[in-house]
Amino acid sequence: MTDLVRITIPLAGLPDAAILAGQFAPSSIAEYRADIAAYLAWCQTNELPALTAASLARWRTHQAQATTLSAATINRALAAVKRLVKEAAAQGYLHAAVAAQFHGVAGVKAKALKERQRSHARTRITPADMRRLQDAPDRSTLKGVRDAALLAVLAGLGLRASEAASLTVGMIRKQGSGWLLDVIGKGQSEAREALLSAEAHRLVLEWIAARAVLSQHVFTAFGGRGESRATAAPMSATSIWRTVQTYAVACDLAHIKPHDLRRFLGTQLAKTDIRKAQKALGHKSIETTARHLDDLEAGLSDALY
């Protein structure tokens, strides 16, 4: 009877995704938390018990039929829920049979949703495009000062949105005549060094001085009526994604995502040395770096000899 009670408790009664600490980086745990919250909200809206594998399977079907999400996005969300349930069972919060049932829920097939692989999944950005994007924020406003610094860091360091969201002031340190950021990236347990350009460093200092709030986080959110007041709370990865898209649309660069800025840096560095691109992006494998680069440019091999 005890097992039955534990099996039927609502998923919302489980520990937070923080129980995954020590297995994933904080940025990854934050992404898990967002996916799990989306699942819980859907279950609540549809009056379904969250802690049943059948509900997870129906959520999968809903996302495949009623949304435009890619197969990769749907499967990532499913994996987040299943991973939390598995860990909750391992720590004794619920019966192992529940985790086994959730584990049996299959993901969607990429081929079945092939039409969702949009032609703009990758958007090539030229140096001229990047300069227009960098100059787009209105730096006469406090939000514009922050956004200019954010774009400079994303483009100049090749950070993921989650990495930019978790940056703290203490990660910035001087080395020689320049400045570095110690970044803990996706799947990494140790920080990697990322070179902070002179422009990015200047804009970050300008933003920190202008916001007039004490916070350990580099990029903080706005709150209050009309989102006009600087707060000490960090921006979320989602907010960073939206910020990039807002300026991209204003520059007629539709469909640009934060990862396109990361790809831009890797492509530019790889033109002279792909090993430098690998180090800047924090990839363990140079094959991973190669997959991140844009296609070769016409004429690239001209006048080589």
Please give the structural blueprint.
Layout: H1 2-7, H2 26-45, H3 53-66, H4 71-90, H5 96-103, H6 127-134, H7 142-157, H8 161-165, E1 172-175, E2 178-183, E3 192-196, H9 198-211, E4 220-223, E5 229-234, H10 237-250, H11 258-270, H12 274-281, H13 286-292
Antiparallel strand pairs: 1-2, 2-3, 4-5
Q: Strand fraction band? A: 5-15%
Q: How many beta strands in the DSSP annotation?
A: 5
Strand order of the largest sheet: 1-2-3
* Mass-distribution shape: globular
Uncertain segments of ≥5 residues (pLDDT<50)? 1-10, 294-305
Number of helices: 13
**Average pLDDT, to the nearest integer?**
78
Radius of gyration: 22 Å
The topology string of helices and strands comes to: HHHHHHHHEEEHEEHHHH
Biggest sheet descriptor: 3 strands, antiparallel
Intertermini distance: 79 Å
Give the proportion of residues in helices: 40-55%
Task: Spell out the key features of this protein.
single chain, 305 residues, mainly alpha, two-stranded antiparallel ribbon, 13 helices, 8% strand, globular, disordered N terminus
Describe this structure in words.
The strands form two sheets. The chain has a three-stranded antiparallel beta sheet. It has a two-stranded antiparallel ribbon with strand order 4-5. The protein has helices spanning 2-7, 26-45, 53-66, 71-90, 96-103, 127-134, 142-157, 161-165, 198-211, 237-250, 258-270, 274-281, 286-292; strands at 172-175, 178-183, 192-196, 220-223, 229-234. A hairpin with a 2-residue loop joins strand 1 and strand 2 (178-183). The protein has 13 helices and five strands. The N and C termini lie far apart (79 Å). Helix 12 crosses helix 13 (286-292). The model is unreliable at 1-10 and 294-305 (pLDDT under 50). By secondary structure, the protein is mostly helical. Helices cover 50% and strands 8% of the residues.
